[in-house]
Structures are given as C-alpha cells and as structure tokens.
Structure to design on (734 residues):
C-alpha cells in the first residue's frame, strides 16, 4: 500500500492547513482569470498575501501585478515599506491614487475635522479595475473581522458597476470555486477568509515576515477623539478641546491616517504583539476603524458599493 | 502552540437553540470578543433584556438577517481553544434551505445536529442527519438540547436517542453513503450544561461534553481508512527565465500521500512516470500528504496540464464520460433531462448534458421516488450525466474531493447544482 496509514500520519498544523487552502485559492484564480491583480496596502493581511503568492508561484514571477489604492494620507513608514518590499520581490506595483481621482473630479474631497479619504477609495479602486480591465482582485479581508462578513464568499462576485449584491453570490462547496463572469464584471478573492487576526500574526511570526514599524509600540504625537487615539498628520484638524499628546502607541491596522486609531501599547516585538492580541478581546475592526463604529449596517452598505 | 483545524457544521430546526449553543461555545471557550459583548450589552438594554446576558444575542446577526430578508446563508464563525482551532459552518434551520445545509456540510469533519428535548426528533432533524450522511461527514453529534426543560431526565434522553438511532441506522448500511458514527450528548445551551463545562445535574451522563468531543474527534483529513493518492494538477509552473528549464505541476493533494521516487500515472490522458521531486517554497519534501499544496517535478515529459489527475498506477480512479450522481439542485429554474451545464470537477471544467433524472429523495423517509419530470430548488435526486471530455473520478462515498462536482449555468454563470458521484453508470 502506498498511502501512509492515517493513524500514523501527523496532522497538519492549523496554519499549514490554512496556508495550503489559500495557496489552492490563488492558483485557481491564476488558472481561471485573464487579468488578476493583488491589492497590496502594506498592511499585515496583504503582507501575508504576498508570502502566499510566493509559495503558490515561485520560482516563476507572480502571474499578476500588485496594486495599491493610495489615499495620499498614509503613514510615511507604510509607503517606505511598500516600495522597498515590492522592489525586493521584483514584482510590478501599480499605484491608483485617490488624489488623481479628486483632481479629475471623479470624487469630491470631504472637509471638516472628521474628513477621511477612506470612502473615496471605492471610486479610485473601481476606476483602476476598469482601466486595467482586471477581472479578479485579491484582497486580505477576513470573515472574522466583522460580523457582517461572516457570510462573505472566498470568490465575492461584483457586477459591471463593481457592486456586491447578496443575491448574486454563489454557494461555495468543497474547494470548488465558480469563477465564470461576463466582461466588465470582476471577482474579489479573499484567500484569508478563514484566518483570524491571531492566525495572521502567528503566520507572520512563523515566516518571519517584515511588517511596517507602526505595528509596534513607538512614541508618537496623537490626539484623542471618540475614545480612539489618532496620529497627528498634515491633514489633522483638531476640534476645540482636543489637544496633542505624546503617547506610546501601536496600530493594529494601517489604513488612512485620518481614520485609523492607535492603541496604547508596549508591544515592541512580534511575540509581544501576538501575546497582546491573544489577550485582547477587541476585534481589530471594533476597536480601531472609526467608520465601522458608526453601525454594522455601514459595513454592509459599503460592501454593496464595492468598497472592499 | 501547534493546533490543528476542525470544521463542523451546526443544524437544527428554528428555536432548537443553535444560536444559544454557538454563543455558549464562544462565550465559555473564552473567545468572545469584548466589543461584541458591548453590542450584546447595548442590545440587551435596547430589547429591554432582563439584565441577564442573553447569550443568543451573540449570534443574533443570523436571526437579524433572517428578519431583514437578506438571502439566508451559511455564516462562518471562528474560535480556538488551547488544543484546536475551529471553523463553524452555521446553517439556518429553515425548511427550505437544504442548499445551505449542503454547502455548510460539504467541508465539515463533524455535524452537530440539535434536538429540542421537549419537541423530540422533528422531520427537520432527520433532514439534517440525512444531509450530513449524504455529504459524507464522518462524525455526527446529536446535541439533545433544553434538557433543563425536561428536568434533566435520563429516560427522556434515552427515548430520544432510541428514536434518532432508528432513523440514523437507515443512513449507513446499503445506501452507498459513508458509514457515520453518531454520538449523543444531553445538554442545556442556555444553562451551560455539558457544552463546555460538565453538568452537575446529569451525573448519569458520563460521555464527553461537547467541547471535549470537538477537541478530541479525529480530523483525519480523509476518511479513516487509507485513501489512495489523488493529485489534481491546478497550475503548471514554467518560468520564462532562460536559466530555468523548470517545469512543475502545482496543486493541492486531495487525498492520500505521495513520495519522491513513486511511480505515478497521469489521467485521463494516460502515461506513466516517476516523481523526481516534491517542491515547496520552503524546500523539497520526501513525502507529502493531503491536504498539502506543493509542486511536482516528474522524470518524463508527458502531456500534463490543468485538469490532469496524478495517482499511483495500481490505485487509479475510474475514468469516463458517463456519471450517475446525487445532485442537490440550488436554483429556481428546474433541472430537466436535456439540460446542459458547465461541470467543474477538481481542477477541470467540462460541459455536461443531463441524460435522465432517476429519482428524487424524500429527505424524511429516505425513499427514492419514481423518475420525476424535473428537480426543483432544494431537491436532491439521482441524475445521469454525460460529459464532453473524460473525467478521472471516484465515488463520493470514498473520496469527497474527487467524488464531487458543481454545475454552473452556462448563461447566467451561477452555481446551480452540487453533485456527489454515485459510481459510473456503466
Ligand atoms: N430552556 C432552554 N431554553 C433554551 C436553551 N437553548 C436555547 N433556548 C431558548 O430557545 C430560544 C431559541 O434559541 P435560539 O438559540 O435562538 O435558537 P435557534 O433558532 O436554533 O438559533 C431562545 O429563547 C433561547 O433562549 C436551553 O438549553 N434551555
């Protein structure tokens, strides 16, 4: 008998099982779509996506480019990391700029102290997808981040307006994914659907992946608003009563500076970050993304508009 | 800490206590996220909660969506204990959502079927047990819930076990479906008896509590008996770089194990060669086992492409263009003889024509009907299909990955059916 008897066979660790599943998803997309793209934001989830792409396609180059939807309000550390990482990989990066969309009148800049370019990204992203006729876009979204995502598909179908309609989503059985679409439609693909935040960090630790420095405790000028600590930036408009304080913080996500809250933390190494997350009860979304606290429906509506 | 990963599906009729059970698992397993607790606190006040934390609120998202009419679907929940990582496929308990149960069950290692101790074994509970067997889930746990409402009475529990076992025994033998082992646990999700902590009020029950069972049950990737190796080729790696004359066949091992030097056959095209190397990004392996993803290098240049299946020559699967399969129909427009669909099986897509529909299964009595005109939404029936190109397949009861397929509507592109191959029609 060739097969090793199951009883003696060691089980795959959960990270290896999740990794193997994600690699399978990436290869299905490479095989069944003409023009995939990997959305790379410099964040921890997309960093894991890059490593999974290496595992799926090396020694060949990735069969798709990377794309960053750049709000222009990023942490400087993240942009520096992004460019260095892409160069190291020898892969191609397309930058879709929200500022361009504003300049071309495609979107209107929000004003006021709570303004953020977060919502403008949708138009920039959909315009870029149309411009490059991408038909599949890898994203780092995970079902565990937010209850509204518990039902999200691995292949999340978007119509020719880039919209997500719950009735159009396809049942996903076994590991058989249906990637058939018409011209002008595209699929968002989420290889990390079954990963938790803790899995992502443990994988980063296991693979010793580099992440932007702001994930670790560092001193920074911040201000407190709605129970969150926001970084002072050239775009900050303080509301009266808010004052700038220096705090040792770290960030659990690396979104747009104006709406990504930091947490007071001493976690300076990967192990300390993993320990902190294992102990913390707050899901990253609940705690640090301002606009998600508005209402759970906000997530659902923005997904319908094709935001992620 | 290396954990392993268990997938289980939960099903029960509405109000059997599924949301409460899942909430209890998450809550007691100390994995509840505080911000969700905050929501629960606010939601409790909003609904004039009696102050006591209403556990079911933790998963009320499913019920809330039911009220909002968003298409009801499988919701995936995640939690971990010190021993294992869990993925719950939480299927709605509605009558007409067979397709969601089938979806959730397709990847599950364990099926948790809820019963309400007072209402007993409902028609729906039988449907859930049947679908779990049809989808080849090796282990089933019957959670006899709401024992607090029957004074934790052993007699009532044993009565329900006998009732359910009578039905479950029909699922195994002779139906061609996989033999499933069934366990029964008396519990109260609301009071927390035997979910995570052992109940002080049911000393007569000495079996494992639910979480113990879930932490110990084997998550053998394939069915306990040894599985022949099945490696569907997904993607050919051929770097354009001049230096690399590398040619690798990449995929995820569906079952069994492969070793460097093994003689292998390539199907359906045919041809034999040996494994020269098993490559991964982290270096070569001497041996690989399901469900690993890796890249094979072979000693001979053969006609291999996406959709080819690599296996050991003396354990080859069936190859053919004629299939009979139990199909769960998942869309409004009915399945009729003569219908044509795209059929996706492992990494291969072909066109399939429906030659005949042999029967529709009555999910409560398990009887197979006379040949019907058509299969409608949520029907499960035996269908005979002819494919445009040969497939290398196994019966579903012996291999869930090489024995399953989906049907895709050629015009609308939707996934309209899920198939479990019964065996070649020849
Ligand atoms: N007495 C008692 N009530 C329960 C138990 N489990 C759930 N319930 C109640 O049964 C009702 C339905 O529970 P729920 O979890 O929403 O059921 P679902 O529709 O299957 O999700 C709720 O009022 C629960 O509080 C139990 O073990 N004992």
């Amino acid at each position: 008998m060739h097969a090793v008897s199951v009883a003696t066979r060691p089980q795959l660790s959960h990270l290896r099982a999740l990794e193997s599943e994600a690699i399978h998803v990436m290869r299905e997309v490479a095989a069944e779509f003409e023009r995939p793209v990997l959305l790379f934001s410099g964040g921890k989830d997309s960093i894991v996506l890059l490593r999974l792409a290496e595992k799926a396609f090396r020694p060949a180059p990735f069969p798709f480019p990377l794309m960053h939807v750049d709000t222009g309000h990023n942490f400087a550390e993240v942009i520096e990391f992004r460019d260095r990482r892409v160069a190291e990989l020898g892969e191609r990066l397309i930058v879709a700029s929200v500022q361009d969309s504003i300049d071309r009148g495609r979107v209107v800049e929000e004003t006021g102290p709570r303004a953020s370019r977060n919502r403008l990204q949708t138009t920039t992203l959909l315009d870029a997808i149309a411009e490059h006729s991408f038909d599949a876009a890898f994203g780092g979204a995970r079902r565990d981040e937010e209850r509204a995502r518990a039902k999200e598909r691995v292949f999340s179908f978007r119509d020719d307006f880039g919209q997500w309609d719950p009735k159009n989503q396809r049942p996903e059985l076994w590991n058989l994914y249906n990637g058939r679409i018409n011209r002008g439609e595209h699929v968002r693909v989420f290889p990390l659907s079954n990963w938790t935040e803790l899995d992502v960090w443990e994988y980063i630790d296991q693979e010793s992946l580099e992440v932007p420095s702001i994930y670790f405790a560092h001193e920074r000028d911040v201000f407190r608003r709605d129970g969150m600590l926001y970084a002072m930036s050239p775009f900050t408009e303080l509301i009266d009563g808010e004052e700038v304080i220096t705090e040792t913080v770290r960030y659990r996500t690396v979104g747009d500076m104006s709406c990504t809250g930091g947490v007071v933390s001493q976690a300076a190494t990967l192990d300390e970050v993993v320990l902190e997350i294992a102990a913390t009860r707050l899901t990253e979304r609940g705690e640090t993304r301002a606009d998600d606290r508005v209402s759970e429906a906000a997530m659902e509506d923005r997904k319908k508009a094709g935001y992620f | 800490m290396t954990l392993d990963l268990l997938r289980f599906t939960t099903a029960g009729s509405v109000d059997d206590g599924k949301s409460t059970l899942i909430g209890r698992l998450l809550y007691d397993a100390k994995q509840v996220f505080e911000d969700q607790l905050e929501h629960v606190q606010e939601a409790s006040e909003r609904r004039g909660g009696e102050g006591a934390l209403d556990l079911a609120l933790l998963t009320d998202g499913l019920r809330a969506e039911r009220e909002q009419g968003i298409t009801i679907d499988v919701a995936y929940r995640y939690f971990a204990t010190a021993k294992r990582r869990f993925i719950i496929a939480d299927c709605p308990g509605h009558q007409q959502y067979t397709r969601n149960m089938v979806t959730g069950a397709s990847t599950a290692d364990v099926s948790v079927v809820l019963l309400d101790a007072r209402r007993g074994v409902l028609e729906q509970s039988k449907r859930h047990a049947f679908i779990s067997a049809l989808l080849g889930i090796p282990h089933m746990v019957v959670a006899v819930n709401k024992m607090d409402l029957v004074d934790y009475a052993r007699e009532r529990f044993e009565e329900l076990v006998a009732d359910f076992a009578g039905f479950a025994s029909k699922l195994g033998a002779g139906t061609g479906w996989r033999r499933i082992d069934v366990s029964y646990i008396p519990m109260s999700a609301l009071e927390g008896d035997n979910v995570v902590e052992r109940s002080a009020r049911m000393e007569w029950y000495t079996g494992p509590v639910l979480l113990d069972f879930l932490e110990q049950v084997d998550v053998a990737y394939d069915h306990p008996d040894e599985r022949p190796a099945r490696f569907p080729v997904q993607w050919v790696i051929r770097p354009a770089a001049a230096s690399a004359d590398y040619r690798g066949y990449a995929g995820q091992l569906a079952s069994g194990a492969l070793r460097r030097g093994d003689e292998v056959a390539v199907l359906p095209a045919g041809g034999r060669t040996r494994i020269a190397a098993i490559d991964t990004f982290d270096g070569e392996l001497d041996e690989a086992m399901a469900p690993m993803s890796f890249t094979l290098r072979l000693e001979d240049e053969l006609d291999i492409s996406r959709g080819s299946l690599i296996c050991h020559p003396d354990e080859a699967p069936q190859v053919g263009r004629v299939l009979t399969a139990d199909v769960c129909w998942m869309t409004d427009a009915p399945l009729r003889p003569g219908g044509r669909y795209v059929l996706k099986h492992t990494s291969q897509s072909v066109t399939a024509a429906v030659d005949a529909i042999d029967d529709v299964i009555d999910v409560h009595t398990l009887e197979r009907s006379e040949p019907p005109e058509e299969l409608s939404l949520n029907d499960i029936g035996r269908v005979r299909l002819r494919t445009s190109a040969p497939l290398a397949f196994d019966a579903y009861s012996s291999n869930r990955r090489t024995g399953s397929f989906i049907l895709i509507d050629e015009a609308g592109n939707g996934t309209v059916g899920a198939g479990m191959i019964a065996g070649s029609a020849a």
Notes: Residues 129 and 243 of chain A are 41 Å apart (CA to CA). Chain A touches chain B through 64 residues (CB under 8 Å). The first strand of chain A starts at residue 36 and ends at 39.
